[in-house]
Design brief:
alpha+beta, about 425 residues, Phosphorylase Kinase, domain 1, Transferase(Phosphotransferase), domain 1, 18 helices, five-stranded antiparallel sheet, 10 strands
Length: about 425
């Protein structure tokens, strides 16, 4: 008798025309023989040994089964009608659905079975829902409900009809300055709202910046969000780098306990950098190499890669991505003020002020001396008597030489 998983694998093999029904029947017979002989094998093992499928094909079929097994319980979430799958990541599958009671379209994120038995992932999943539920802002994806059905955990949220900044970057787009500033400004307003309520996002990146068909920005995925006051979670996570390597802040890489809003400012700055230059701020062959560069390597100014950028944008990004968080914006509202300023053609006052302070501090740290000009330094220099004497003597010598030459010419005539 075949197990449920073996039966499903067999069905998928035939559906994908990797083997015929007769060939599958032969493999099932061999499987039963080996099981009766005391061997611990699966139908997938026999199919691979018989040459009908490869191991990589089995892995893909298993993943497809996981999708199917998730889709069925999703159909049974009370009060919702599943309309189709939107996308899938390592942590969850997202479905488009209709909320029957209000007759509106929503998105439902479902945690896969393989993670549902892991308390850490389940806790993070519900923490995302709770964090999003406490935030109410036009630029943050709205939370609707969380729950469990058929052993699967789900999170219902606002459905966004649009794409992400990541989608556009992946298609080769480099954002022009005005468009990028408008998107980053909306993200900054979303973060300011979260920060004012004691939350830090900790995973700001292009994939989590959604754009509707009406060009409204929605910050998504509060899966790593944490309350600043949550010392217990901060202590439990100490020493571990939570975030995405291309956009993670130095203090997150070091696994510091006292992470605050400035980590989000850094990640938003890295996203901003990618949008206007078409390149991530730091790259490398491995995630650890990328993170090492965030910690140690100086940032290539964005206007060196995109010479059409205004000086103000470069200053804003460099302050957002300062390696020392004390050199970044003192508040998210300061960042918003500068972004609004450059949209109006003004200089980024807060960034310029912090940039100048940083430069002066750098001079102080290196021990260089700075001379301040006095009134005497600014006065025209007094004539040097020694120089005037030399000039007069030279003039006399030249005059005498001229007279001698004239006399010589007269004598020759």
């Amino acid at each position: 008798m075949l197990s449920g998983e073996d039966s499903q694998i067999g069905r998928k093999v035939v559906e994908h025309k990797l083997a015929t029904a007769d060939e599958l029947a032969m493999c099932e017979a061999r499987l039963n023989e080996q099981i009766q002989a005391g061997k611990k094998v699966t139908l997938a093992d026999v199919l691979v040994e018989s040459g009908y499928v490869t191991r990589s094909q089995v892995e893909r079929l298993t993943k497809a089964l996981d999708d199917d097994s998730m889709y069925r319980p999703a159909q049974q979430i009370p009060g919702f009608q599943i309309l189709g799958k939107i996308g899938q990541g390592a942590m969850a599958t997202v479905f488009k659905a209709k909320q029957l009671s209000l007759d509106r379209i929503v998105a439902i994120k479902v945690l896969p079975r393989r993670l549902s038995d892991n308390p850490e992932f389940v806790d993070r999943f519900y923490r995302e829902g709770r964090a999003a539920a406490r935030l109410n802002h036009a630029n943050i994806v709205q939370a609707i409900d969380v729950g469990e059905a058929g052993g699967y955990h789900y999170f219902v949220m606002e459905y966004i009809d649009g794409d992400t900044v990541y989608d556009r970057l992946a298609a080769g787009k480099r954002f022009d300055e005005t468009e990028a500033v408008n998107i980053i400004l909306q993200c900054a307003k979303a973060l300011a709202h979260a920060h004012s309520r004691g939350f830090i996002h900790r995973d700001v990146k292009p994939k989590n910046v959604m754009i509707t068909k009406e060009s409204q920005v929605k910050l998504a995925d509060m899966g790593l969000a944490r309350e600043v006051s949550d010392y217990e979670t901060a202590t439990a996570e100490a020493g571990r780098a939570y975030g995405t390597p291309y956009y993670i802040s130095p203090e997150q890489i070091r696994g510091e306990i006292s992470i605050d809003f400035r980590a989000d400012v850094y990640s938003l700055g890295a996203t901003f950098y990618h949008m206007v230059t078409g390149k991530v701020p730091f790259d490398g062959p491995t995630p650890s190499a990328v993170m090492h560069r965030h910690l140690k390597e100086p940032l290539v100014p964005p206007d060196h890669l995109n010479t059409t950028l205004s000086a103000g944008i470069g200053e804003i990004i460099e302050v957002m991505m300062a390696k020392k968080r004390d050199d970044r914006y003192a508040t998210t509202k300061e960042l918003i003020s500068d972004l609004q300023g450059v949209l109006q053609g003004e200089a980024p006052f807060q960034a310029r002020k912090r940039y100048d302070q940083s430069m002066l501090q750098s001079i102080a740290d290196t021990g260089e001396t700075v001379s301040i000009p006095t009134a005497d330094d600014l006065s025209p220099p007094e004539p040097n008597p020694t120089n005037w004497t030399a000039i007069l003597l030279l003039a006399a010598f030249l005059g005498l030489s001229l007279l001698l030459n004239l006399a010589q010419c007269v004598m020759q005539k």
